[in-house]
Structures are given as C-alpha cells and as structure tokens.
Amino acid sequence: MEQYKKEFIDFMVESDVLKFGEFTLKSGRKSPFFMNAGAYVTGTQLRRLGQYYAKAIHDTYGLDFDVLFGPAYKGIPLGVATTMAISELYGKDIRYCSNRKEVKDHGDTGILLGSKLKDGDRIVIIEDVTTSGKSIEETFPIIKAQADVEIIGLMVSLNRMEVGKGGEKCALDEVKDLYGFETSAIVSMAEVVEYLYNQPRQGKVIIDDTLKAAIDAYYEQYGAK
Questions:
Q1: Residue 129: its pLDDT value, please?
Q2: Residue 163 has what pLDDT?
C-alpha cells in the first residue's frame, strides 16, 4: 500500500472523520463504521486533504484534464483544496467548478460556481464518498448541459465496498456502468481494515478482533460481489 494511503487512513481517524461503533445509515443499514467528511474543519486539515486527493488523482488519472468538478455542497471545499494542492505539488493549473443547488438569477448568474465549462474540457469529479450515486445522478446532467465535455473519472476519499441501489455491485461500479467513466477512491475499506487491524495507533488498537468480526459480518450481508 502506498505511503500516502497509510497516512490518509491515520488522518481520517485522527480528524474524527472515520469512526467505528454502531451507526444507522440513511439507507437504514446498521454499520460498524461511518465516514463524515464534514469533520474536516481547519485550514491545516483541508490543506492535507487536498494533497491526498491530488496524489490519488495524479496516480489514477494523471494530470491531462482541465477542470475539477465538486458537486454541492461538500464537493465545493474539496474541489478548491485539491486544485490548490495540484498547483502546489505538480505545478499544474486546474480550474475548479461546482454546481449551485439553486440557479442564481443576478450578479454571477447561472447554476455553476467557479469556472465556466467549455467545449472540449476534460473533467474529473471529486466527492467525499459515494454510497448510492445520487449526487452523480443530479450533477451529471448539469455538467453535460453546459458544454461538450468529457468526464475522465470520479475520485472519492473512501470506497465503502458495499452494494449500491442495484443490490450487487458497489456504488462506484454502478456509477461506472451507468455513466461510462472511471471511478476510484483514495482508499477502500479493505485497505483501512488491513492497515488498522490489531495495529496500535497512538497506543490504541482501533480495529480489534471484536470490531473486525462486526465489519466482516456487515460485509457478509451488504458487501459488493
């Protein structure tokens, strides 16, 4: 596993973004883990987060694209932080773009924040996590309505690796099949478990045998095939 992935897993835990216990998800599933990217709240956290996304995007898709699109609302700070990190780490200027939830009819009008989209633009979409693909369902037609663009791929921070709406594949694979672009994550839950299981972090074991059994049971029921 790449070093930045290990650092990112530690970073999620330290930032209280990735939690373990018992959580009821929007879907009604009882999950032994929960991720909330809204817990990244400081400048230092956002700077580091942007760097991890930038490295993952660079390693997965390269830098031959023009726009980083972050769906409202959580994708907005992700897009801003990551475009800055790409400039800082790789010297490449990528434009950032996000959608508004409501069309603005005065001043800076329209549905978009940040850069306008132009014919021929190559786009990478950035999100925190994709559980059902709902945000892509909402933003894909918005992006396609702006110009003749090509979506290169989607990057999320964590692949939960559980079945999406179709009941067989994970949400990232469902998005890939439905919209025809690549999907990827900085880390998967399998990598999280591999890295944290019975390994002390700051004097404490995060995933012990009991929690590992709960995670395994969860994937027995909801894991993508």
A1: 85
A2: 86
**Neighbouring residues of 199: CB distance < 8 A, sequence distance ≥ 6:** 205, 206
Q: Would you call 104 a catalytic residue per the annotation?
A: yes
Q: What is the dihedral of CA 95, 101, 107, 113, to 10 degrees?
A: 0
One-letter amino acid for residue 25 of the chain: L
Angle at 214 between CA 208 and CA 215, to 5 degrees: 85
Residues in the chain: 225
- For the chain, give the percent of residues with pLDDT over 70: 95
Q: What is the pTM of this model?
A: 0.92
What is the Cβ-side half-sphere exposure of residue 107, based on CA atoms within 13 angstroms? 5
Among residues 6, 55, 58, 104, the one annotated as catalytic is 104
- The catalytically annotated residue of 26, 106, 204, 225 is 106
pLDDT on residue 166: 78
Instruction: Read off the tokens for 185.
Output: 């994550």
Residue 106: active-site member: yes
In angstroms, the CA 35 to CA 38 distance is 9
